[in-house]
Amino acid sequence: MDHVAKLAKCASKITVFIYNHVALQAWLRTRKTWTEILHPRLTKFATAFIALGSLKEHKHDLQALVTSKFYVESRYAKDKKAKAVVTIILDNQFWNDCHGIMHIMSPLIHLLCIVDSDEKPAMGYVYEGMYRVIDGIKKNFKDKKRLWDPYVNIIKDRWDN
Fold this sequence. Notes:
Blueprint: H1 2-19, H2 22-29, H3 47-57, H4 59-67, H5 69-72, H6 80-89, H7 92-116, H8 123-140, H9 145-160
Helix pairs in contact: 1-3, 1-6, 3-7, 7-8
């Protein structure tokens, strides 16, 4: 799943860029809909995917930032790394891929949160959870087999071994 690794790398570039520049964070915090990108509270096993989902929620705020007069006239806009990040933020394919991956990962993250909680569920509950994950992925893709089949097969292959 090289495309997932590439997507996570792009998301990491955006996150690092935003958190390395205090002025950009300050501008984003003035927006009513802005919350922090990173939420370390959920589960440590899915941090990259949780951050990816958070970025997806902040798509419009991030696009507003990089197209704002504040940003365009700032010294940040002239940096080579910044230009690469702006290209990612304005790329519709990146956001479409984020949306697709979150359709796959949201049922898995939910199960990981249950398994990672202080109350350890019985093994039978975990097995039922895996069936629910597979059903959730199928439902998220509205039963379009060509979209969910490769991911469900990976889960089934790992599960059977």
